[in-house]
Amino acid sequence: MIAEILFKNITKKYPKGPEALKGIDLEVGKGELFTLLGPNGAGKSTLVKIATTLTEKDSGEFSIAGNDPGKDFTTIRRTIGVALQENELDPSETVENLLRFQCRLFGLSKDQAQQRADELIRAFELETERLKKCETLSGGNKRRLHCALALVHRPGVLFLDEPTVGMDPEARARFWQVITHLNKTEGVTVFLTTQYLEEADKHATQMALIMGGTIHYRGSVTEFKKMVNSGEQLTLEESYLAFMTQSHQPDFATN
Ligand SMILES: Nc1ncnc2c1ncn2[C@@H]1O[C@H](COP(=O)(O)OP(=O)(O)OP(=O)(O)O)[C@@H](O)[C@H]1O
Ligand SMILES: [Mg+2]
């Protein structure tokens, strides 16, 4: 496997906060559709922010597509697309303008920027929102715009932190069409966090489970289900819940 995303012994403690990551070793292969699962506060967003150079790690190393953030910071920024969990959009800008600005930031000409903005507005069905100010968008439409913004420069690696929160079923289906198309036909590596396990079950092939800043499982979704279940055909959500119940048993924790 060629590691497209590689973390080696990453640690992070927030000032006056918890030890959010306690030595993360993780590899994600090129072209994988990978999901990082885990309970609230497990460290998922912290890992995404470190990988996307938005937060400093305390120690450890990581690389994206062979690039070291210490040496190839600009290359990494151009290689990745990121939609963070928190919504931070310029409130007084319109959807179309924001997309065009983002395209310009990545070096597209005016005409190219308009064309790319149009494509993404179409892809995420934001036509009726095109001229609306971001502050007036609904939660789900903000998430669509975040995903569109992440894609302006056709990144080879996509980090999506709970991208579909608040999207209606049609928007979610549309979102997955776009993402699976990018993954399957263009080989884009996808690193996704989600609490919607039916989505992960349907679309992801590889996964990791993080709890309390430590990875507890890394492998295929199919293997995870097999490991948890004794012969039963369970969904990923059922398997996840069974795994959580087992790991909260005192015996399990001390052995
Ligand atoms: N800026 C911060 N300052 C202090 N502590 C923080 C900060 N950001 C996150 N934390 C803490 O670090 C830990 C990991 O948080 P993180 O946001 O990475 O979890 P998560 O797995 O993304 O959770 P969720 O599923 O709720 O999004 C939590 O205990 C959280 O409270
Ligand atoms: Mg999070």
Elements, N to C (H/E):
EEEHEHEHHHEHEHEEHHH
Going by CATH, the architecture would be: 3-Layer(aba) Sandwich
The CATH C-level class name: Alpha Beta
How many β-strand stretches?
9
What do we call the CATH homologous superfamily?
P-loop containing nucleotide triphosphate hydrolases
Write out the distinct hetero groups bound to the structure.
Answer: adenosine-5'-triphosphate, magnesium ion
Total of domains: 1
Class by helix and strand content?
alpha/beta
Contiguous runs where pLDDT drops below 50 for at least 5 residues: none
* Average pLDDT rating: 92
Q: Per DSSP, what share of the residues sits in E-state strands of 2 or more residues?
A: 15-25%
CA distance, first residue to last residue? 32 Å
Overall geometric form:
globular
Largest sheet: number of strands, sense, barrel closure = 6 strands, mixed
Commentary on this structure:
With 255 residues, the protein is of the alpha/beta class. It has a single domain, classed as P-loop containing nucleotide triphosphate hydrolases (Rossmann fold), CATH 3.40.50.300. It is 40% helix and 24% strand. It is built from 10 helices and 9 strands. A 6-stranded mixed sheet has the order 5-6-7-3-8-9, with helices on both faces. α3 crosses α4 and α8 packs across α9. The two termini are 32 Å apart. The model has no long low-confidence stretch (mean pLDDT 92). Bound molecules: adenosine-5'-triphosphate (ATP) and magnesium ion.
